[in-house]
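Researcher: We're teaching a course module on how sequence relates to structure. For the next exercise, students receive a sequence and then see the predicted structure as tokens, so they can try to spot secondary structure elements on their own. Here is the exercise chain.
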Amino acid sequence: MDLGAFSVSLTVKDLAASKAFYEKLGFEATGGNAEQGWLILLNGTTTIGLFQGMFERNMLTFNPGWNGDKTRKDAFEDVRTLHASLKAGGLEMSQEAGLDETGPGSFVVVDPDGNPVLVDQHVPKPEN
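Model: And here is the predicted structure for the students to work with:
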């Protein structure tokens, strides 16, 4: 099962201060919208998301359809397929994906220690 590109989504109190801090560590803003309270930062192959006022906790994030360099994959498992497979395997979802949708979608599972794992597909469902 390929969940796509991996990143860490950080809940931040002050987006500008967090951005400045991570820039000092060599990260560069490559996406997002500061006015909406979120930015995506990249340092080599490491991606972090900064989110102000959007999530309660930091979380692991996977993006089906994306490579680590934020380019689209030619072929990938759709988020709805991943959702159904994991649910059939006994995982409970804390946020469900719409199974009849074709565009972007997401779901959240929580690990045994309470850490949320977001599977968030930004690209349209691949054509079969």
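Model: If you want an answer key for the exercise: The first strand starts at residue 5 and ends at 12. The helical segments are 15-24, 79-88.
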